[in-house]
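Project channel, design review

CF: Before we commit to the Algoriphagus oliviformis constructs, I'd like one complete example in the thread so the newer folks can see what an input/output pair looks like. Taking histidine kinase.
RD: sounds good, go ahead.
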Amino acid sequence: MSDKIHVLYIDDEDNNLKSFRATLRKDFKIFTAIDAEEGLKIAQEEEIHVVIADQRMPGLTGTEFFERMVKINPDPIRILLTGYSDIASVIDAINKGEVYRFIDKPWNIEQIKNSIKNAADIFFMRRELKEKNLKLQKLHSEMNQFVYSLSHELRGPLMSISGVSKLAKMELSDPNVLEYFEMIDSATGKLDDFIYKMLDFYRSTKIDHKITRIDFREIVDNQMSAYREKFDLSHFHMDVQVNQREDFYSDDAKIRVILNNLFSNAVQFQKEEGEKRISITVDVGDGQAVIVVEDNGIGIEERYREEVFNLFARATQKNVGTGLGLYMVKEAVEQMGGQVVLDSEPNEGTTMTVTLPNLNKETL
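CF: and here is what came back for histidine kinase:
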C-alpha cells in the first residue's frame, strides 16, 4: 500500500477532474470519476480513504451518491462540494450521507488539502480503533475459554487427590498417618475453593450481563444445598426467608457470586465459642431486590470497613479467605446498578445489605 492518502473525486465536469488531479497528484493518490455510478465502482474496488463529490450532478446528486456509498463502503470519509446555498440539501447530506464537511465552490487549493488531510486522520484513527476492538473481542473470547479450561484442568486432578485420600483414610487405622491425609484434604479443599473464587471473580468483573428471569427461591434453595455440602453447618442456626412479589430480571451468575461470597464470609468469620447464627432474607418488590445476609460472627472494626471492599483487602489476621470476596460482591453489584451497605460491630456480627434494580424485559 502507498503511503499517500487515497482520494476519490467525483464531478460531472471533465475540466474539474483534470484540474483536481493535476493540482493534487503530488500530495495524494488521486482517483476520479465522471459520474456517481463510476465513483461507486471505484469505491467498491479500490482502497479509498477520502471521497469528495460535487452535489449537483446529473443522475445521482452528491448526497444520493454518498447515501448509496455508505451501504457499499462506509469507511472512507466524505466531503461534499456545493456551489449554491441549499439548507435542505445540507441537512439531507448530513442525515443520509454522513458527510464529514462541506466545501464551497470554487474550491481553494489549501482548503482542499487541509480538508483531505484532516479527513484522512479521522479515517486512519477509526481504522486503528476498529482493529483494536477486534483484537479486544478476540482476547476476551480467548480469555473466557482459558479461564474455564484452566479451572476444569485444575479441578480434575484435585478431585482425584481428594478421592484417593478419602479411600486411603478408610483403609488406615494409624492416627498419625490419618493426620497426614487430613492435611492433604485441607490443602486440596483450600485450593479448590480458590479456583471457585477465581471463577467467581471472572464472572463478576469480566463477563457482560446475561439478563434472565430470576426465581430467588430456586436460586437460594440451590445455593443452600451447595453450602451444606461444602460447609459443616451442623452447629449453625440458619434462618432463610424469600419473599418475591413480582417478576425480576437480572444476571443469575452475578447474583450467585454475591450470595456465595456473603455466605462464605458469614461462615468463615464466626467466633469459636457460642451460638452461631446466619440469616438470609430476600425481598423482591417495587422494582428492586433487597438481599440481606446477617451473622453474629467476629465483626469488622470501624477502621477496616471501607477497605474490605478493595481487592485482596482483609479485616482480620485470621488465616481464612482470599481477600477477593467483598471486592467481587461490590463489582457485581455496581455493574448491575445496585448498592451494597455494610453494618458491623466487633464481636457482635455483620449485616450486608445488597439492593439490586429490576433489569426488566426491555433489557433482554
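RD: helpful, thanks. The mean pLDDT is 83.
CF: The first helix runs from residue 14 to 24.
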